[in-house]
Design a protein that fits this description.
- The protein is about 80% helix and about 0% strand.
- The chain has about 130 residues and is mainly alpha-helical.
- It has one domain (about 5-134).
- The radius of gyration is 17 Å and the shape is elongated.
């Protein structure tokens, strides 16, 4: 049986990543300008990353609908959140990245911890169900 908190967690993650990805897809120029961030030499760098974030958001929606069936998406989500948070926070500690990115890194760190807890809860639920059948 799925823990009751897992579905809402991934629904929040889905909304967060879809909205964040779409915001940067359609309005990255004014967002960058508002925070004084230098634009890259080509829009595709931002657009591709924004599309990936939105796509992961769709994946998290799949998890919210059926966490047990979509455990592998959770694992990919852990890697996504770890890579973003790890890279941004490492540069942040060295003061080598615009501060605009740092709140997203802390949010991703929290999501990563919650995703790991969800994986653990799903594994425990699976083991418990197997024990009841045996």
């Amino acid at each position: 049986m799925t823990r009751e908190w897992i579905r809402p967690l991934f629904l929040v993650a889905a909304v967060y990543d879809i909205l964040l990805g779409l915001a940067f897809l359609v309005a990255f120029r004014p967002i960058y300008a508002a925070f004084g961030v230098t634009l890259p030499n080509h829009d595709a760098y931002v657009l591709f990353a924004a599309a990936l974030v939105a796509i992961f958001g769709i994946g998290f929606y799949f998890v919210a609908r059926n966490p047990e069936r979509n455990r592998d998406i959770i694992k990919l989500g852990v890697l996504l959140k770890l890579s973003y948070a790890g890279i941004v926070l490492a540069y942040s500690f060295r003061h080598e990245i615009p501060t605009m990115w740092v709140p997203f890194a802390y949010a991703d760190l929290l999501f990563m911890i919650a995703f790991l807890a969800a994986l653990r809860a799903l594994a425990a639920g699976r083991a418990s169900a197997a024990g009841r059948q045996g």
